[in-house]
Amino acid sequence: MSVRPQPGILDIALYEGGQAHVEGVADVVKLSSNENPFGPSLAAQEAFRRIAGQLHRYPPTDHADLRAAIAAVHGLDADRVICGAGSDEIITFLCQAYAGPGDEVVYTEHGFSMYRISALAAGATPVEVPERARTVDVDAVLAGVTERTRLVFIANPANPTGTMLPEDDISRLADGLPESALLVLDGAYAEYVEGFDGGAAQVEARNSVVMTRTFSKIYGLGGLRVGWGYGAQEVIGVLNRVRGPFNLGQPALETARAALLDRGYVTYCQSENARLRAWLTEALTDLGVGVDPSSTNFILARFDNPAEADACDAYLKSQGLIVRKVAGYKLPEALRITVGDESACRRVVHAIRQFREGQA
Ligand SMILES: *Cc1c(COP(=O)(O)O)cnc(C)c1O
């Protein structure tokens, strides 16, 4: 065939989702995609059922009700909110609108894989900069920025490391970028950090900062595909030009809104996650497994070497516990483990203890 895709497309390695099944093992717990172990709130489930009889209707194109709810809950300007099919779609819009052939998109060593994928899909050049001890290094990011840089992606807190940069570092990064680049703060895990605004104040302070958020993590709606972005009017206006008018269906819009307004459930999920994350971190540390303090709904468990991480992954799988290998994120000695419910956390610790004792 002589029809060729655009340059860069064939360089994209397909995104690998978290595994969900193990052959021959029943009672499997999926801890590989940072999903909310308690599922979506009952209010969200009711909203989803209620919409079933309306599926013949096209959805609104302006997402006004969902944007108004987002603005009210977070104290933002609804006119500067854009909604997408997951925050992945907002990342795609940003690359499509701001980065093309000859332009550079900067992200960090262990950064979320969608940044590279979306940059390549837009024909831009991905530029990866080193981290320091699994934490974003502001100086390294600034050193990687050139006059060709159009976008800098930072997840805060980060996936798959779980680490977080303090506000001062983010300000220093934003201040150090040239005017020709946008800083994108990916706040997919912001709700797991008590009192954190996900980067909203940075957006308010600078036209060059964009924040992305998602309903896939604490809201337990990964299967629905809803995310949003917040930025300067000019930027959001640009993104809306590349957004398909019907990118979100009515079930997604109504269900996300109901989930957002159920604040009691969000608080419950946040406190359970914090409690179980602390317990899991301490139990694994006691077993001699390296765990950085996590600001997310997962922990990164570091083993002595890649072979031990692979062997532990295989053992966990044999016990019906599916976690995430992160060798593709340049962390071959580590496994990313979602903080599940209490029984799942106990099973993980029990299995890793058995594994470590079997090794000894
Ligand atoms: C899970 C995750 C997202 C969310 O993706 P959606 O498309 O909203 O499901 C975004 N960024 C990071 C770093 C994530 O881990």
Which labels suit this protein?
single chain, Aspartate Aminotransferase, domain 1, 2 domains, 4-stranded antiparallel beta sheet, 12 helices, 15% strand, binds pyridoxal-5'-phosphate, pyridoxal phosphate binding, HistidinolP_aminotransfase, Histidinol-phosphate aminotransferase, histidine biosynthesis
Q: Secondary-structure blueprint of this entry?
A:
Elements: E1 29-30, H1 42-50, H2 64-74, E2 81-84, H3 86-98, E3 104-108, H4 113-121, E4 125-129, H5 138-144, E5 149-155, H6 167-176, E6 182-186, H7 200-205, E7 209-214, E8 227-230, H8 233-242, H9 250-261, H10 263-286, E9 290-291, E10 298-302, H11 306-318, E11 321-322, E12 324-325, E13 334-338, H12 342-359
Parallel strand pairs: 1-11, 3-4, 3-5, 5-6, 6-7
Antiparallel strand pairs: 2-8, 7-8, 9-10, 10-13, 12-13
Helix pairs in contact: 1-9, 2-9, 3-4, 3-8, 5-6, 10-12
Pyridoxal-5'-phosphate binds at residues 34, 86-88, 112, 155, 159, 186, 188, 214, 216-217, 222, 227.
